[in-house]
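User: Can you recover a sequence for this backbone? Please restate the input before giving your answer.

Assistant: Of course. Working from this structure:
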């Protein structure tokens, strides 16, 4: 997880303060992952692409299990991994 955060800082997706907040504010690894995903999602498609690329390079097995291994979108379609990452975690409730 720390290596992924380092990559995101190197790629200028996260600033050092955001990285530290994720590390210090989330003692449980799953919370770190959730916070990282939420933070990157808010930064848009470029940030998501960079995170997917980094995750695939750091842990190809996990990336494949999550269905995030392909970085090339099918012609005429948006990238399915990006769509997955950009979907809201909780559906919006219409009033």
């Amino acid at each position: 997880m720390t290596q992924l955060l380092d990559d995101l800082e190197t790629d200028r997706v996260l600033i050092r303060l955001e990285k530290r907040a994720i590390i210090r504010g989330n003692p449980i690894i799953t919370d770190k992952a959730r916070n990282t995903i939420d933070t990157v999602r808010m930064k848009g498609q470029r940030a998501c692409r960079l995170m997917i690329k980094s995750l695939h390079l750091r842990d190809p097995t996990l990336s494949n299990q999550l269905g995030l291994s392909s970085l090339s979108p099918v012609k005429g379609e948006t990238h399915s991994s990006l769509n997955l990452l950009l979907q809201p975690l909780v559906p919006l409730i219409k009033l």
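That completes the design. The CA atoms of residues 43 and 71 lie 18 Å apart.
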